[in-house]
Amino acid sequence: MPAGTRVRWAVVSATSVALVATGCGSSGDGGSGGGSSDTSKTFTYQSSEPQNPLQPANANETGGGRIVQNLFKGLADYDPSSGKLRMQVAESIDTSDAQTYNVTLKSGWTFHDGTPVTAKSFVDAWNWAANVGNNQINSSWFGDIEGYKDVHPESGSPTTDKMSGLTVQDDTHFTIKLYNKVSYFPYKLGYVAFSPLPEGFFKDPAGYGQKPVGNGPYQFVSWDHNSQVVTKTFANYQGVDKPKNGGVVFKMYTTAEAAYADLQSNNLDVMDQVPPSALANYKNDLGDRAIDAPQGAIQNVGFTLYQPEWQGANTAKVRQGLSMAIDRDTITKTVLQGSRKSATAWVAEGVEGYKSGTCGDFCTYNPDKAKQLIQEGGGVPGNAVKITYNADGGHKEWVDAVCNSIRQATGVNCSGDPKTDFKTARAAITGHQINGMFRTGWVQDYPLNANFLADVYRTGAASNDTGYSSPEFDKLSTEADQAASIQDTATGYQKAEEQLATDMPAIPLWYYRTNSGYSTNVQNVTFDSFGNPAWTQVEVKG
Amino acid sequence: MGRYVARRLLQMIPVFLGTVTIIFFMTRMLPGDPAAAMWGDKAADPAQLAAFKHQMGLDVSKWQQYLNYMGDLFTGDFGTTMGGRKVTDVIGEAFPVTIQLALLAFAFELVVGVAIGLFAGLRRGKAFDKSTLVLTLLLISIPVPVLGFIFQNVFAIQLGWVKPTVQAQHMTFDQLILPAVVLGSISLAYVARLTRTSIAENLKADYMRTAVAKGLPRRKVIGTHLLRNSMIPVVTFLGTDLGALMGGAIVTEGIFNVQGVGNALYHAIGRSEGATVSGFVVVLVLVFLFASLLVDLLYAVLDPRIRYA
Is the CB of B40 less than 8 angstroms away from the CB of A225? Predict the structure, then answer.
């Protein structure tokens, strides 16, 4: 069969999966109950081939990211059950002014090669990662630290290789000085980019990227490209989450369908997310081994506020009207097969500072009110609107459903505007080449509401795709950043979030969920709000 | 013969250069910025993006990039992926997987296809022949993904006879057999039908009557005279099919998690990784050129009337 024909069939494959999947009813013997477990046995997890070397500040795609997370452990991380910040290598991270942080390390931590984890391990690692010349994808994460602009100038070469804001006092103490007050900075420190690096790394970063040496619960064993990354439990791990298993084997899959087939036949123990074709049946297939958990991610449709048609105070009413014309509950139940939950705010559920109902009536389906608001706001320009989205992400179905809902409720001629793939859509959105609405969303970097708000809606923020600029929102969020405690920051951002209901720069649609499952070989599998399993808590049956 | 091969090899040079050039510019004209795509959903930090582009040699004109690429290519340097791995390493991982799978599929369609075609052709119009026609028609009409999912579900998930997916670098026969059968099944139908028709036609040829009349044993009549002469259309088909198999099969590879050429190309195109796509295509062009040369040479072996000078 010619190659061309083979490619053509890819288009129909998704529907044929659904047909076949309904015919399969294999279900395991349940077995999430408390059987005996063997702490020396490893389990397999669905992964994809890491695209970058396994360096902490260079892993932003899921494949490499979750492997690095298990090999390294920073000052703090997030409790998988509550999402709250918990100390790991740090004994404490103290501040009196939200600008200078004093870090005290616990003693006894070592890297997998036996060398101790000291204050210098952190400071050197951060200086190296922030340096623009080292080409780390997440280098901008260090932007809060004083001296960042010297190692990471906007153009030209760095003038120094050390950030002035980082000072080592002794082996277990160092200070971090920031450019501005950022009360929730410790929350950022839970991100894997802030991991320490052993001394050997700096002599051969590329080599360590292939054979990483970290300080996390699992140590690297081997990386067979396109096949698997094998890890084993690190005996001298000092963290609060001691592994209950012997290691994680990350098996590489190209499609969720293949992983699901393996999971059903116990060739794979825990998977990421069941394929869309299995959503309708996975709970039947897997019984009590099926997982349905909330995720810290939200789907929105944004407006091109940088276009003249969408400026002016009155246009907010049009946007609010469009939001009320979307029947979220029906779409999440039918088109999305219960894999999402209707949004009532701009911050995802389960995140510190989440407050339901901030969007209020504007996120409740009400066709009459929708029509009225759109009229009051002067109507949609040309009575037609397009939603730009990437055609390679499985978004067509819900975009069409949202448009149908808008059309039926208000008579506004809404249609989808698919771009071939993700990067084409991104180029059109960030290049301001569109006019109307576009698919957007946010996956948490850390489970705090500031991340969903400051990074997306503040004037000039890197991910502010709508071009939203509200002096009121900016003022409230700056105030929140300078609050005395994380609690106060979260409350402050809740106030800023209310401004979004008034201006409606983006319509919140729904929150993501983790729809997954596990094999009969393992038990005690739970997922956190990042959509990752609580790795160390997984028990392998004896 | 030697001169013919030399001429063919020389002809490959312009074909090769032309294809590489076309592919280079086609992949570089794909919309979207491959460097910015490294940041995924998040906006790229402008300073880091610029530094990254400079390191990857993407901050010069397309023509300069082309000259650099061709220059490197002739020294055996296929460039690096966006993640910094050597493209030759990536090719070196994907091709062995595809080659093993392709050879297994090829052997399956060749042996089973020719055998079925031979028996059907010899017993033209009988029950075996008729059922062959119906079954091969059925195979041709079922889309590959449907066949793939059915086989995977029945033989791997329900019955548990074989493994449902393939693990690259740890491949075993019970992992590869399912995708190989699925991949080979459609070509198998064509091979069977081509062989059958060719056999049935040649049965009436003069040389067959002569062979039978001079009292040759039946095995020799069929093996040496009939089958050999009937293989020419089949070999033509098999030659191009081998090339197609080497190019990988995106859908089948996706279903069975085969991390082969098709899959690697698919993802490289998705990420607009020009160097990776070009690298694979360069190798594929060579595979196709040599496969077609091999087919032409096989003609002469099969049919003594065909001579190359």
Answer: no
For B31, the closest chain A residue by CA position comes to A424
Q: CA of A222: how far to CAs of A43, A204, A229, in Å? A: 15, 18, 6
Separation CA A460–CA A462 (nearest Å):
6
B155 contacts chain A (CB < 8 A): no
A177, containing H or E segment: strand A173-177
Cα–Cα distance measured from residue A185 to residue B264, given in angstroms and rounded to the nearest whole number: 40
CB-CB: which of B55, B146, B258 is closest to A135? Answer: B55
Beta bridge pairs of residue A232: A219
Looking at chain B, which residue has its C-alpha nearest residue A441? B41
Mutate to test the interface with A, among B88, B101, B149 (most CBs of A within 10 A): B149
Q: What is the pLDDT of residue A125?
A: 96
Query: Chain B: residue nearest A419 by CA?
Result: B31
Q: Largest alpha-carbon pair distance within chain B? A: 85
Is pLDDT at B53 greater than 90 in this prediction? Answer: no
- Taking an 8 Å cut-off on Cβ atoms, the answer to whether A155 and B47 are in contact is yes
Other CB atoms within a 10 A radius of the CB of residue B42 amount to 18
pLDDT value of residue A364: 95
Give the whole-angstrom CA distance, residue A3 versus residue A10. 12
Chosen from A26, A226, A267 to mutate, greatest number of chain B CBs within 10 A: A226
Q: What angle do CA A64, A65, A70 make, to 5 degrees?
A: 100
| Chain B residues in contact with A391 (beta carbon < 8 A) | none
pTM for this model (two decimals)? 0.84
Count CB neighbours of A235 within 10 A.
8
ipTM: 0.82
Shortest Cα distance, chain B CAs vs residue A7, angstroms: 7
Share of chain B above pLDDT 90, in %: 15
Which domains can be identified in chain B, with CATH numbers?
88-270 (1.10.3720.10)
Residue B289: alpha-carbon gap to chain centroid:
12
Considering only CA atoms, which of A72, A74, A76, A116 is closest in space to residue A208?
A72
User: CA-CA distance, A13 to A394, in Å (whole number)?
Assistant: 13
Angle at B129 between CA B126 and CA B133, to 5 degrees: 140
d(CA B210, CA B266): 54
Nearest to A264 among B32, B157, B262 (CB): B157
Q: How far apart are CA A448 and CA A485, in angstroms?
A: 13
Q: Where does the pLDDT of residue B288 fall: very low under 50, low under 70, confident under 90, or very high at 90 and above? A: confident
Q: Please name every residue paired with A291 in a beta bridge, in sequence order, or none if there are none.
A: A516
CA distance A323 to A502: 12
- Distance (Å, rounded) from C-alpha B62 to C-alpha A88? 49
Q: Render the burial of B44-64: b for 16+ CB within 10 Å, e for the rest.
A: bbebbbbbbbeebebeeeeee
The verdict on a CB contact (< 8 Å) between B50 and A258 is no
- At residue A35, the pLDDT reads 66
Determine the residue among A44, A137, A139, A208 to mutate to test chain B binding: the one whose Cβ has the most chain B Cβ atoms within 10 Å. Answer: A137
Distance CA A308, CA B125 (A): 75
pLDDT band at residue B295 using 50, 70 and 90 as cut-offs = confident
Token reading at A358: 């901030």
Residue type for A59, please?
A
A415-468 pLDDT, tens digit each = 999 998 887 888 888 889 999 999 998 988 889 999 999 989 999 887 899 999
Q: Do A135 and B52 touch (CB under 8 A)?
A: yes
Cβ distance of A254 and B259 shorter than 8 Å: yes
CB A465 within 8 A of CB A323: no
Bridge pairing between strands A247-252 and A218-224: unpaired
Place of tokens 């249609």: A415
pLDDT tens digits, A343-355: 999 999 888 899 9
